Amino acid sequence: MFRSARTVSVALIAALVAGGLIWALLPARVRVDLVAVRRGPMQVTVSAEGITRVRDTWLVTAPVTGEARRSPVHVGDAVTAGETVVAAIEPAEPPFLDARARRLAEAAVVEAEAAVRLAGASLFRAETELMHFEAELDRARALTDRGTLAQAMLEDAEQAALSARAARDVAQSDLDMRRATLARMEAQLEGPETLAFDGSADCCVEITAPRTGVVLDLVDESARLVTAGETLLMIGDPEDLEIHVDLLSNDAIGVVLGTRARVERWGGDTVLDAEVRQIEPSAFTRVSALGIEEQRVPVVLDILSPATERVGLGDRYRVYVTLVTWEGKDVLQVPQSALFRSAGEWALFVEEDGRAAQRSVKVGHMSSDWAEIVSGVPEGARVIAYPGSSIEDGTRIEPRETAAEAS
């Protein structure tokens, strides 16, 4: 019996030694992060930087060429449609004359003066002839009344008087024309040193605000020469804002009219609500800071939050917009960090009895951090986040939380 007990002891010791050797030769457990497959709300979003702009702006332009007075309004001033004078334009000063131009103008004046004298002489001759023919007409009428002059002779005298009167009118008109020409030539001699605007309101064009709002921009406050059609200032309502965002063409595919958005990091404490109003049909090319050509699509959003919730937000402010392209209320999802590609399919590792078990899954929508699981794993299963190259199907694993507690 003593021998039997000894045999059992030896066998037990041998078994313990063999078990210890086997345990020592087994690979160590790999510490991993385990995350439970969960159900919950999920959103697929697109984030981009945007710029606020006043929705409707009005450009006030110069209706005529002239000298714009110093602006009576300043940036930020409130204006009323049809009442507030936002600009005034007066006639421009004539240009300076160089020596050659002045000599030409002086010669033209001399020529015009001579033409006036010539026209005056012609008028004097026409008036003298008219006086002569009118006297002849009076004599012919007297002789005709006494019966000593034929009727035909009287008619000739009347015709001669009419012709002389018409010649006098022509000479008078020619003199008036020559005098006007002289005045024009004399005006050409007058430069800015001789002509000065008298400041009367009759000489100016006053421009009133086309709509009620606030002056958003002034091209120049100082007095200056402007041409017809040149922009003077811009007016708009700073509370009526919209947001312009240039999205990558790949991200813009999921954006439709009416897509909801959140406006964040605009400077306030609240998150503003917005909605897509316009998506332009054509993209444009933009070179990124890394020198990469990107196709961008302009998108316009309306801010839905009232102005009282966005006090201080103005025109051309930078904001950050998050557009919700898809959302679900009860979605089975896992972290994107748990997914990897295997044999052309999505796969992940599930924890089963302390070992990693590879499972193929069908993935639906993806957000920035989570992925929708259509099939492949049940709710509550624990998956390995960030599986490294040391993880394979059947690898012994140990949760990091458990390892931390054991230490």
UniProtKB/TrEMBL annotation:
Residue ranges of the TM segments: none
Residue span(s) of domain YknX-like C-terminal permuted SH3-like: 331-398
Residues in the signal sequence: none
UniProt keyword annotations, A-Z: Coiled coil
InterPro entries: UPF0194_transport (IPR050465), YknX-like_C (IPR058637)
Keyword Cell division in record: no
Domain of life of the organism encoding this protein: Bacteria
Localization annotation: Cell envelope
Pfam families: YknX_C (PF25989)
PANTHER family found in the cross-reference section: EFFLUX SYSTEM COMPONENT YKNX-RELATED, UPF0194 MEMBRANE PROTEIN YBHG
Protein name (database record): HlyD family secretion protein
